């Protein structure tokens, strides 16, 4: 008999919360495998972990060929696609700027003169390998977190779970017939939670700052369009088929605004924005 079972673990710098609808004998093994996959993504793509693929890439020199985890290779492939499609608004080669802002640790032994874009820094090869075109300090924090949610869902489905939700600090994906109401804090009135949509078999991610924390305004964004407009977003939520897409596209929408509409359509995604002034907007 199916019943709701919920487990949570601290991973990816947040609380990863998984709920499944499944028989007890199936649910526990499925949950264990889902959390194992999230931990594997964390180990491969954490810029804080000196043994991660990203830190090994940061220490590598131009011309070196490195083997990376299949998860890392898959996320880098998607990141290259989104970097090109967004005209550089999505910029994974941003770790050097984030290090200077004190948001990431300075990698010991890293090669100097890191690439300004992912395409400038790496070329993907077959067999989960890549070649360094020039030194590359890569941050995949958000898109990797979304990918972790996606692979957790895949693990649950592979184990026979027919319905559930994986939530990693606001990067969320639900599968199965049940509808989930997505609620987001109104950044202009932080005490108010607003329902945005009911979703099923869909993912979403939110990037936001609060009006009473202006010092955090867009500090996580680095891109070709990093000069934020006069009436910038305070909160961006993207709905997409995969959580990795949803998370990455929040950054593109933040920087490109309505100009991100073609890229959203290409990936069957939709965005909801709150700006400092004016009414909420759907793209």
UniProtKB/TrEMBL annotation:
GO terms for molecular function: metal ion binding; transferase activity. Gene3D superfamilies: ApbE-like domains (3.10.520.10). The keyword Metal-binding applies. It catalyses: L-threonyl-[protein] + FAD = FMN-L-threonyl-[protein] + AMP + H(+). InterPro entries: ApbE, ApbE-like_sf. Its cofactor is Mg(2+). Its EC number is 2.7.1.180. Keywords: FAD, Flavoprotein, Lipoprotein, Magnesium, Metal-binding, Transferase. The keyword Transferase applies. It comes from the Bacteria. This is FAD:protein FMN transferase. It comes from Roseateles saccharophilus (Pseudomonas saccharophila).
